[in-house]
Amino acid sequence: MTDKVTTAMVLAAGLGTRMRPLTDTMPKPLVPLNGKPLLDHVLDRLAAGGITRAVVNVHHFADQVETHLAHRKAPAITISDERGELLDTGGGVVRALPLLGKSPFLIHNSDSVWVDGIGSNIARLIAAFDPERMDSLMLLALGANSIGYDGHGDFLMAPDGLLARRGERAEAPFAFTGVSIAHPRLFEDAPKGPFSLNVLWNRAIERGRLFGLRLDGVWMHVGTPQSVEDAESWMSRAVSA
Description:
The protein is α/β, with parallel strands linked by helices. It is built from six helices and 13 strands. A hairpin with a 5-residue loop joins β9 and β10 (163-165).
């Protein structure tokens, strides 16, 4: 068995074009939600779930992100610099592989926010990862119960957690939250340069090694200024209820 997952890759290099005009002067990971930057929501949740080290990639307003992270103690931060070329999700992780080590690691989008149900979803995901069966384990949310999500779903999930893509023009119940655990073997023979993680997830589906875990709680899709307002409104009502 592989050691427990204690390292995370936080994807924070994107341009955040859908979050404009907020991202005209700051990177998307530093956009505040309830007074706290999205990136801190992520890192605080990772630390609470047992992650001790996080590799954060930077590109858009990279200096702002680095300055903001300089004070963090938990998790310990390492920067993966993409100032020279934006590498997309897959290419960004490949660039950071030497920093991530040889054990499975968690991948977390910098704009994924949720309110946990009972216990930590990060800890649940780590506990559920089986490297013998899985190349990747995704945290999924029911699209119908999520805040700010208006898509058609991403995956169908079998009773044992095995995932399949929804067909074209079809609906699927589960949306990807932007959080997963990856075994380094997922990146064997990965493309060079910029590419999406979807390329590797599709390969894992073909091998029967992409699995999912349902999020316990309420997931919020925070991708636009309006969705930030919607998330803050829902969170304030939940606290006062």
